[in-house]
Each structure stands twice: as structure tokens, then as C-alpha cells.
Amino acid sequence: MSDEKQPLVRVKMENKVTNYPHNDVASAAFYFRERLEKAFQDKDRADGIFLDMIGLMTMIAFALEGYVNFVGGRLIERCVKEKDRAAESWQTFERERTKDKIKAIRKMTGIKIDWNKRPYLTVSELNDLRNMFAHPKPHKPEPEEWEAIGTDDEFNRQLRNYKPEYEERLTWEFAQRAYDDVEQIWQELLAGAGIDPYETLSGGSQGFSLLAWVNEDGSETLG
Fold first, then answer.
1. What is the pLDDT of residue 19?
2. Is the Cβ–Cβ distance between 221 and 213 less than 8 Å?
3. CB neighbours of 159 closer than 8 A, spacing ≥ 6?
4. How crowded is the C-beta side of 11, counted as CA atoms within 13 Å?
5. Could you tell me where the DSSP H helices lie in the chain?
6. How buried is 193 (Cβ within 10 angstroms: 0-12 exposed, 13-18 middle, 19+ buried)?
7. What is the chain's Cα-based Rg?
8. Domain boundaries, given as residue ranges, for the chain
9. Which of 104, 138, 141, 165 is the most exposed place for a label (fewest CB within 10 A)?
10. Are 126 and 60 in contact (CB under 8 A)?
11. CA-CA distance, 50 to 35, in Å (whole number)?
């Protein structure tokens, strides 16, 4: 910043920037995916990979909900002209589960959805895993006993390989599938709702325009 004293002015400030959170969480999902892809390809790190996987899956699930909320909000604005009814419809929509929100979008747009096939097959599994992290519950292990034949090393390996349910389901294969499926769902919902992808981007304009120069005595000279 220049040390030169700047003149005092009166201006009109304008901020017409729109920020859509779904872009930030989608970017976070992309970041974690790129980071993990490099880690698995280069085999250059073992520490923290599981934690990155938790971050990736959480951001993928958040991105899906953000995508669905964006499309649903636009459709409600388009279909319900009265402001009060639109607000009420949005509140009802927002309280629904992600899968039910997609069903509501299907009713408003007529798009075809097969819940038994990808990409929509992934929605329930993704949300179940997300809920395990969003609403963690204590797990009291039940004692297990069984007979086995083998060596000490084999017994120890078998015991060490025990994993809780969320870790069993949190695989790199599923993470890649979930990421791809959520992005495909996003594109299909946009197309079904007739929304240009450009409309989903954050951005806008900022600036100020000069109204008057402010003199030392407080008087003004019009700009």
C-alpha cells in the first residue's frame, strides 16, 4: 500500500456476489480425491490415509446434498410464485432426507430415476456411511469366540484385521464410485431441471463509484 495520503471520498458501494456452498464442498471432495489418488499410486504415505478417506466421503455426501438443495430451491422458486408459499415449500423440502429430496425433484421435473442402478443406487449407501460419521454412536463390542487352526502369526493377523462396520464400508473403490455417481447425478438433475451449469457457479461483481470528494472541512465537491 502506498504511503501517500489518499483523498477522502464518498462513494456508492456495490456487492453483487453470490456464493453457493455446494461449490466449496465439491472442491473439498475433489481435493481429497486427488490427494488420495496420488497416495495410492505413489505409495508414498501410509499415515492419515484413513482420515483423508473420512474427509473425502463426508465431502462427497455434503456435495450431493448441496447439489440437491440447489436444484430443489430453483425449482421451488420457479413453480411457486407466491413468496410465502415458496418459503413454506422450501422449509418442507429442506427437512427431507436427501433421497426424498431427489424424489421430490423427480416429481417436479419428470426425470427418470432407477434406484436399483448406478448412479442412484449409491445414494442410500453413501448417506448411511455419512450418518455414521455425522451421528457417531458408541459401539459396545460383543465377545466372540471360535476355534481355528494355524500359526501364532496367522491368529494375530486375523485378530488385527477386525474392523468396525464404518471402516469395512469405507473403501477406496466405493469412494471412487460415490464421487463419480454424485457428479453424474448432479449433471442429470441440472439437465432435468433445465438449469445451465453456468448458473451454479459462485461469483458476481464488486466495486464502488465516486459520488463526491470530501474536503478537510467536511464539505463536499461532487465527483
1. 84
2. yes
3. none
4. 11
5. 21-42, 49-79, 83-94, 98-109, 121-134, 152-160, 165-169, 172-193
6. middle
7. 26
8. 1-18+202-223, 20-199
9. 138
10. yes
11. 12
DSSP string, 169-192: H--HHHHHHHHHHHHHHHHHHHHH
Q: How far apart are CA 91 and CA 208, in angstroms?
A: 36
Please answer whether residues 179 and 37 qualify as being in contact, where contact means their C-beta atoms are separated by less than 8 angstroms: no
The Cα 102–Cα 189 span in angstroms is 9
48 three-state secondary structure: coil
d(CA 193, CA 208): 36
Alpha-carbon distance of 45 to 38, in angstroms, equals 9
Q: What is the pLDDT of residue 195?
A: 96
In this prediction, residue 21 carries a pLDDT of 93
> Smallest Cα–Cα separation from 52: which of 35, 27, 38, 64?
35
Mean pLDDT per 10-residue interval, the chain, length 223 residues: 77 85 96 94 80 95 97 90 77 93 94 96 94 78 72 73 76 96 98 94 83 87 79
What are 140's three cell numbers? 459396545
Please name which of 174, 190, 170 lies closest in space to residue 122, comparing C-alpha atoms: 174
Sequence letter at residue 96: E
What's the half-sphere exposure (Cβ side, CA atoms, 13 Å) at 142? 0
In the numeric block, which cell numbers belong to residue 192?
432435468
The three three-digit cell numbers of residue 24, written as one number: 466449496
